Amino acid sequence: QQQVKQSPQSLIVQKGGISIINCAYENTAFDYFPWYQQFPGKGPALLIAIRPDVSEKKEGRFTISFNKSAKQFSLHIMDSQPGDSATYFCAASNSGGSNYKLTFGKGTLLTVNP
Amino acid sequence: GAGVSQSPSNKVTEKGKDVELRCDPISGHTALYWYRQSLGQGLEFLIYFQGNSAPDKSGLPSDRFSAERTGGSVSTLTIQRTQQEDSAVYLCASSQGDVNQPQHFGDGTRLSIL
C-alpha cells in the first residue's frame, strides 16, 4: 500500500517557469509534510516542510500548498533555474507516533532547461 | 559542522557474502534512521534507533538484515547472505529525536550485488 502518491514522475520546465509537484496521502494521522531535494550521488536534503495547521508556507522561491480536506499537498518552485534540476521527494510522518519515520513518495525528476 | 557520514560510499560484493554498512550521525542527534532507495523508487524505511535501542524494526525486509547502534552514536547495518535484490542505495539519517525535527541524510552507500 503506497501511502504517499507523488506526481508527475518527471517534469521539464523552462528557465523562469513555475514547477509544480503534487502529492496525496492516505493516512489521516500524518501531520508533518517535508519536501526533500536530491542531486545525483547525494543524499536527500530538506527543502521546506509544513504542518496542517497552515495552508501555505513560503521560503524564497519554494512554496508548499496544503489542502487538509483533500489530503493533498504540493510544491511550487517559482522562477525555476537550471540549478533546481534534481529529484524531489515529498514525505509525511505522524508526530503522534513514536518514531517520526518518514513515508516518501516515489520522487519527481525535475529538469529545468536554460 | 560535520554532517551524517556513511561508509563505504560504494560496495560491490558477490551474492551470498555478508556486508556491513556504517553510519556516523550528527553529534548529539539521538534518533537515527536507515532507509533504502532502489532505482526509480522512493525511500523505504528500514529501522529506527532512539539512543541504542531500536523500537521500530518494522521495515527490515527479512531476517538477513540487522542493525545495531553503540554509544548512542555509530550504527552498523548488516546484510547477511546478500541477494541481487539487495542492490540499492542505503541511506542513513539522524535527527534530534523530537517532534518534527528535520532528518538529515548522509550521501548513502551504493551496494551492488553481483
Topology record:
The complex is a heterodimer of chains A (114) and B (114).
Chain A: E1 4-7, E2 10-14, E3 19-25, E4 33-38, E5 45-50, E6 56-59, E7 62-67, E8 72-77, E9 86-92, E10 103-104, E11 108-113
Parallel strand pairs in A: 2-11
Antiparallel strand pairs in A: 1-3, 3-8, 4-5, 4-9, 6-7, 7-8, 9-10, 9-11
Chain B: E1 5-7, E2 10-13, E3 19-24, E4 31-37, E5 43-50, E6 53-56, E7 65-69, E8 75-79, E9 88-95, E10 104-105, E11 109-113
Parallel strand pairs in B: 2-11
Antiparallel strand pairs in B: 1-3, 3-8, 4-5, 4-9, 5-6, 7-8, 9-10, 9-11
Question: Which stretches of chain B are poorly predicted, pLDDT < 50 over at least 5 residues?
Answer: none
How far do the termini of chain A sit from each other? 38 Å
**Shape of chain A, please?**
globular
Most extensive chain-chain interface: A-B, 27 and 29 residues
What is the general shape of chain B? globular
Q: Tally the helices of chain A: what do you get?
A: 0
Distance between the termini of chain B: 37 Å
Radius of gyration of chain A: 14 Å
Number of helices of chain B: 0
Classify the secondary structure makeup of chain B into a structural class. mainly beta
The portion of residues assigned to helices of chain A is under 10%
Mean pLDDT of chain B: 92
| Helical content band of chain B | under 10%
- Total number of beta strands of chain A: 11
β-sheet strand percentage of chain A: over 45%
Largest sheet of chain A: 6 strands, mixed
- From N to C, what is the helix and strand string of chain A? EEEEEEEEEEE
Tell me what portion of residues of chain B adopts beta-strand conformation: over 45%
Name the poorly predicted regions of chain A.
none
Give the structural class of chain A. Answer: mainly beta
